[in-house]
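Reopening this one. Same input as before:
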Amino acid sequence: MSFQRIAVVGAGAWGVALGNAIARAGRTVTLAARNEAGAAAIAASRESPHLPGVKLHERVRVVAADADIGQPDAILLAVPSQHLRAAAATIAPALAAGTPVVACAKGIERGTHKFMSEVISESADTALPAILSGPSFASDVARGMPTAVTLAAPDEAVATALAHALGSAAFRPYHSSDVRGVEIGGAAKNILAIAAGIVAGRGLGASAAAALTTRGFAELFRFGKAFGARPETLTGLSGLGDLILTCSSAQSRNFSLGVALGKGENARVAQAGPKLAEGAFTASVVVEMANEKGIEMPIANAVAAILDERTSVDHAIENLLTRPFRAEG
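Same output, byte for byte:
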């Protein structure tokens, strides 16, 4: 398995970051932008408007998403989770059987409750679904700052080969075959990052932030265990690692959304900002899935209720603080 030609679908901040990282690893990269106009603009300036000041690596070629991307050895879908089905369907007709298609979105599809690997399987049935996730900010990855993530595929040999092909000294993918665990960590931590942002925005203090993150991880772990994730994955980079990053930095879109909510901004207004926060779309989905299995997730429930304007921030905090005392676990 020699992955020399890599396509990245999505020329937002994350797509550009991944394209640069993979090019630095010595691979040839085709970056597919949303349309011809966008592709032409990026090709001319050699940078994305979503990541200003970061130049594309010389080994990155820019095309439109509906153009011929050739026959890449692997494809990375760096689009938001709710758009991943359409992106996978676009590449499906020309996809060679068995080509790894790697979801780089952190979410679960609304309505269907499908994980990203399941969306790929349904939309591009000849693909080999995989997932890349972990504690990473696009600006860090794009600039070559040291970053470690998890890359999972059902076939351990494929995951290993992909990790070696995409990785470099600065961008280090650890391989795994626990696709579901990696997907759950990435999706659930976004919701908890919104909660951490609310704590920061409300000025509740560092002790509350630490308690929120810890109890939030307990929720993530319960959810993951119920859906078949391995414990070591949930406590690894794509679970606990990503949770720590996004619950403690204003660079996180989900954390920033939470800060705005904590400061009293209307939920609809806060979500209408230019930067998409995946957790805003995933919160209600995770709560629905948790309720179906009887999984207790009070923090996720509170976030979903705030986002849907079914409760206020103050009321949600009061409900959490007045829950009955119980044993830790």
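So the earlier flakiness isn't reproducible anymore. For the record, The chain is about 50% helix and 15% strand.
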